[in-house]
Amino acid sequence: MARQQRLVRRCIVMTTMMMQRLSQRVRCATRRPVLLHPRQFHSLGISADISQRLQGLGISEPTQAQRKAIPLILDGHDVVVAAETGGGKTLTYLLPMLEQLRHYPVPLDRAHRPAALIMTTSQELVQQIRRVLDAVAPELAQRAVCLSSTNQTLSSRRACPLLVATPKALLRATKPGDFAYTELIVVDEADMLLGGGFERDTKQILATIRNQVLLKRDLNVTPTRDETEDEDDDMIDHADVSHCKRQTIFNYGRKSVRQYIDYKFPDTRFAVTQDFHRTLPRLETSTHDLEKFMADQQLTNKDQARKMLLWSILNQPDNANALSSTLIFTNSVASAEELYAYLRHDMGLATCVQFHKEIDRAERQQVLAQLYEGKQQMVVVCTDIAARGLDTTKVHHVIQYEFANDVVSYIHRIGRTARAGTHGKDNALVVGKIEEASAASLSNGFSRKRSLRKKCCDGDGDAGIAMSEIKELKLRRVIGYNGSFPNTLIYTTCGKYLIYSLGLAVVIRNLRTNAQAFLRGHTDVITCLALSNDGTRLASGQQCKSRGNKAPVIVWDLHKASEQMATNTDQSGALLFRLVLHMGKVQDLAFSAKDSYLFTVGGQDDNALVCWNMANGEPTCGTPSGDDSTLVVRAFHTGPNDELIVTGGNYAISVWRVDIKHRKFHSLRANLGNLKRIVTCIGVSPDDKIAYCGTKTGDLLEIILDCDLTKPNCMLPPVGTQKPRYNRTTKERFSQGINTILVHDDEENRRFVFLGAGDGTLACLRIGAISEATVKSTPIPTDTLDKLVGGVTSISEGKHGDFYVGTNNSNIYNFHLEGTTMKLELRSTCHYGSINDVVFPRSLERGENENSHLFLTCSKTDIRIWNARKGQEILRVQVPNLVCNCIDLTQDGSVIVSGWDDGKVRAFYPESGKLKFVIQDAHNESVTAIAVCSSAHASNKEWRLITGGKDGRVRVWKITASRQTMEASLKEHRGPVNSIQVVKDCSACVSASSDGSCIVWNLETFVRTQAMFASTVFRRILYHPDESQMLTCGSDRRITYFDSFDGEAIRILEEASEFELLAMDIEQTGTLFVTGGRDALLKVWHYDNGETVAMGKGHSEAINAVKISPERKEIVTVGAEGAIMVWEMGNLLDTHRS
Description:
elongated; cytoplasm; Methylamine Dehydrogenase, Chain H; nucleotide-binding; Rossmann fold; 23 helices; nucleic acid binding; alpha+beta; 36% strand; repeat
């Protein structure tokens, strides 16, 4: 064996397989002359005795896949075989493997390490391959080892030239050294083994075999020179890799199966049949409209009608008398069991059996054996577990009782009939013309990656009709206000609505009914808002965090949105124009005096001033707004000055006029003398004579605007006779700068200037009579001062002296000006920093409906209790200068327990917010996770508290009425504990950590019972409601299903998100679960199918926590931007449960 020639990797992949190359000597020995159009197996290079054996089995001519692939395999190429179901792919790789093993340098009865390896996806397929081997090559089948269970082991004493196994069984039964002489590898069903839940195990095995030189050195066998060279060929020096190759390496492992093949096996040949992913001509397909059947039969119960329609199909003459079996496919185990009970017990169909994952393995093997023999007619009710790879030649009829969820499932379902040149029939029960059109469109060929939830094709007629797409979740309510950007709170002049930004949405709130509507169209944080003077249009601008992207401005029809908000909360259809020119950020915007134009200013990287025509949404002209950054733009108010604006920024204040005829701007810079100021906000007086400019240094500048258009200046004719000039300033300076200014002229011709400062100061400056405003030169006095919570960023005027103020602490105030006093009232409040957790009560006495009325959130310095129906704060518990990381409630809701960043656990009474107890030094550092094990009367009996810390410890506490005692401190994690979940009987819990481990703890003996490991930062872990499985998510962007019994990963949803997943929750029946992460998207998943069924876009930053309400009608998400969003679940649960 040590002297055999060098090994070169070969892969054979169909929708299935991968094979490694034989040595050069083997290739030369097995090479045969190939005819141009081979019609016999011997002309492909297959030995005469094998060809005769195939003829004895009734297989005389090779299929198209075999004609294309077998010569390539025997000629020494890496081959990908892609063929239709029933296209003979198993023999495609078995026949050349038999030929190559015949020329193996060591007799097969003395090969104690496998020379060939076949990996497949299920134990049923392992047994099926064994049956094919028995029929085609019984002498090899006797020596082949088939591992169909994870409990089997590989004996070193027994000859093992061929090994057939699932990846998990293979890893359990073998050691790396067992693959030292493996020369052929077949990966059956490669799209699943290399791209699904089997991916990690499969790639680990392939990587092990690629290191054969090292394996042989471990066995003290000297590798040949060619093998050493081959090892060197696999090494890639990053400095010498081309850009294209480097990009392929960068994408490898996180993109498609094809990229993995291109990287690991760059010389692969592809053998693709003509009918790949097409329905075969010999397959008769038909659809049955369930709604039409219900109308004809006058039925109202859809489930009962579906069963009756199925029974009528089964009793059709061409089906009832057929000497063949029928497969009936459903989308879930529950549906399969219900249908089986109907057919077997209610209708007395004795030949009906069921086949799904909940059926015992021995029973499934018996059903497969009966289908393979075909001696009796059978009706098999099954799920998609029966659709993959199984040889069902004797099945001539397939019925889709529930239509396939995606294209791949559809292809594999119909592939269970019309196999090996036979004819078959497919009947699909569909709902309405849309699904019927979807079923019809599948016969035309398509990409396997397209889901039936998306458009199948763009052709005419039925082919262009698709099933329902991923549903978009509707926002029912938002709590919060993003006061980080100035002037993002607007009080409409009619006094009915308050408009502000939160996340990716603009919120319209009816002040009388407290109803909300949402304008959604932005893709990043909204930075500025502007309302037209007539109150019918709203403009909003955003920033783009990704460098090089353009930031849009959206103009909304506010009149339409406010009129229809009573019937629909989502008013995104009110979008009028989407204006895209600015790079990176829209700094500020303003409507002209007559609302004819919209003026926008870009951010620091753009710094462009653009005028937009509001008649058609087209840009009129644009220009750089100055030598340095421009921070604010304001329009004049009177009609004749419709084309005039004033801008301010770093050390400059300028007046601009847009020349519509010549499509250009004319500017005139204000004369500030020796003043050097950064202007952050501007307020223009209603008569357009004065501009009041707030600065970063906290002083207010009064600028006289001389813009008399009747006296044009010869040098700058668009502007007036003199330059705008500085007049005076305020007596005092306002701490942390002036953020916003509002100029108000009352009915008695008195002028007031309201300004908001960064330290929370709301000031009223009494200017005096309007007629004297431009002639005074004495410093402006401050009349009234009020201190608000948070820096003031917005002041907006309604009618009759009514104003609203917003702060960067997410507080909204209302005030009235009465004489010389301002009467302030807090109208809305929320967390102003990242919200870390959310929880609903779970009292058994209150019931699901009452438990859904309240929820709790925690953030920096406080815990808040909210009325879920009204979105109002009920109670606030404050602990200054600390951050609350996690919260939970006892089962009866009598105690709130919370973990803080000072390492303490604090418990509070939910009625009063008073402190109940404190566990000092619960953890050395921050408390990062918390969970309660409590009885129904936690206030009267003892209960347990489990906490996790940044130090990696999990601690169990015994809580009584008078003391808190630590029962155990469990230290196995090496990183922060991010999540803890407790089983229903409180006998065990599971903890997830940033170190990539999840550990199940016995809460009676306080020992570890299981551990799961992965190369990720686990963020959340939760139990399925029946506690048979666990779900995890984390930094690897995967959702992993773990078996609670043995801790094995049984399913992995790859790339469930583009960014790290941070939050997850599951509803009580286990049908749906939800996730959120750094991509700010809320996704609803079907648990069994692993598919996204709904999605919500609203947050502008990461979703930190998500909870489904106990009554399962709403989803609450909390984000890093301080937003609380309540989403409607609608009929999602009922739809997918059925």
